[in-house]
Amino acid sequence: MASHPANHSYRHPAPDYRLVLDGRDITPAFNARLESLTLTDNRGFEADTLDISLDDSDGKLAIPDRGVTVALFLGWRGEPLVDKGTFVVDEVEHSGTPDRLTLRGKSADLRAGLITKQTKSWAGHKIGEIVKAIAAAHGLTPRVSQGLAGLTLEHIDQTNESDVNLLTRLARDHDALATVKKGMLLFMPIGEAETVSGTPFPTATITRASGDQHRFAMAERDTYTAVKAYYQDIRGGTHGEVLVNAKGSTATGGKRKNKSANTEIKASAENTKVLRHTYASKTTAERAAKAEWQRLQRGVASFSLNLARGRADLFPELPVIVQGFKPEIDATDWLIARATHSLSSSGFTTSLEMELKVSSSA
Question: From first to last of its 362 residues, what are the pLDDT tens digits of the chain?
């Protein structure tokens, strides 16, 4: 029979957890049955997932209904446990032998209405106004960064598209993060996220001694050196393109009636990424090109790290500095893109996937 990880003997404090099923603490009933627990904490609207495997060799576990909610608190014995969110169980599996009950759930923050397709047209609205309207429609509290809230969108259509897809599209065009956490609809630049109380995330420090395995990779060979976006302003009768690279941005274009206007920017030897979408104005094209440029810069290097001693306080969008690795790694500002927390009879570990932290002004 499986034993609760907290009952194992460790030289450092034992891992600990608490599970609350539909408001009822079920941890005591699971202590001797928990075989493994894995939480995958994702960025944005990609649902966080929770997998729980329980020993049912005595056949006494009842199969729970789908749709029940499970709240998870995770950490170490003798320390405050970290609230890791609430999950809706959407899959139940019983297997054997030995008999095992597996529960799988997804984060409960994503309202059903947010993924319902609808058709709207947004013209002349600020990003803050759009986020506020969507939040109000789903009983959420909006929180938009000051730098993004006042940006005006000339026109954007929501055609048979869910609010989640619309927000994801807006976020991509502005290199922002759109997500729902604890009843709040958040919209803010990637790498500049805040807590629900409005304070910036602290920077976490991880030393080589905390790690178990790591992998650092750089991808210079196929790195783009510029991003190009086209625009066609129907109301203004102009069209053209914007090019963004390490030196900044340049644009060219003219009146649509001037068919001989030069609307091609020569990228010379640059490896240019061309955005497929044609934007409604030069301003929106430039924003999208800059956002894609910043996204490409974050992808130039990646750093994955397995922590032998799990840290439940680590989550996506948290800035990180590391110590004790190569100078190039230690000198880099990192940003957590995904965190996976695993609890089993072997202990509590955390795996991180990190990317470069790029300033929004870069």
Answer: 344 444 444 456 789 999 998 889 989 888 889 999 999 999 888 889 999 999 998 888 888 888 889 999 999 999 999 999 899 998 898 988 889 999 999 887 776 678 888 888 888 889 999 999 999 988 899 999 888 888 888 778 888 889 999 999 899 888 888 988 878 888 988 887 666 566 778 899 999 988 788 999 877 645 778 888 888 876 666 778 888 877 766 666 655 443 332 333 344 446 888 888 888 778 888 888 888 888 887 777 889 999 999 999 999 989 999 999 999 899 999 999 999 999 998 899 999 999 988 765 54
**CB-CB contact of 37 with 17 (8 Å):** yes
User: Hey, what amino acid is at 39?
Assistant: L
CB distance 315 to 336 below 8 Å: yes
- Phi/psi-derived region of residue 220, left when phi > 0, alpha when psi is between -120 and 50, beta in every other case: alpha
Kindly report the number of other CB atoms within 10 A of residue 361's CB atom: 8
Asked if residues 229 and 275 have their Cβ atoms less than 8 Å apart, the reply is yes
Q: C-alpha dihedral over 179, 188, 232, 123, to 10 degrees? A: 70
The pair of three-digit structure tokens given for residue 303, joined into one six-digit string: 């750093």
